[in-house]
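Worked Example 4.2. Consider the chain below.
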Amino acid sequence: MSIYDYEVKNADGETVSLSDYKGKVLLIVNTASHCRFTPQFQDLQKLYAKYQKYGFEILGFPCNQFGEQEPGSNQDAVAFCQRNYGVTFPIFEKIEVNGNNAHPLFQYLKKEAPFKGFDETSASGKILKLMIMEKNPEWLVGDEIKWNFTKFLINRDGKVIRRYEPTEEPIDFEKDIETLVTS
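Applying the procedure from the previous section yields the following structure tokens:
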């Protein structure tokens, strides 16, 4: 299996094959409109605008599994991203990323790039870990997605290169994207 073997649905419910993105560098993100990490949309859009011409795509997947922070419809999620952050990259259908109903794409991503822990040298890393320990300690075990704005970087060959946790700001790993799009 590779990333290109998966199909997803866009916000209008139409099937999209990830093979349509062959040869591109991808950043796949589970998103939410009402999350403390939602401002990351701003930097994601900046990266998209800067590197899209080099074959870079961001694929956003709204998810309501973490604190019910994406309660609206698919169209609500798209409209929010466009209106508040000027997002022009694709926002797909709302999905689940964990549990029995986790989308097969995210099952694959988690297997290919397992959870390696939070950066507890940062305040946001410490806070997120404490919050999860208090409310959902079972999420800290295994490779499950821990919160909204977990990001997966995919190279042009469809290989999962890296997983970035929610506390990792997109601008902080711009060099990783730049390296892939210019090589």
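The helical segments are 40-51, 74-85, 104-112, 123-135, 174-182. The chain has five helices and six strands. Compare this with Example 4.1 before moving on.
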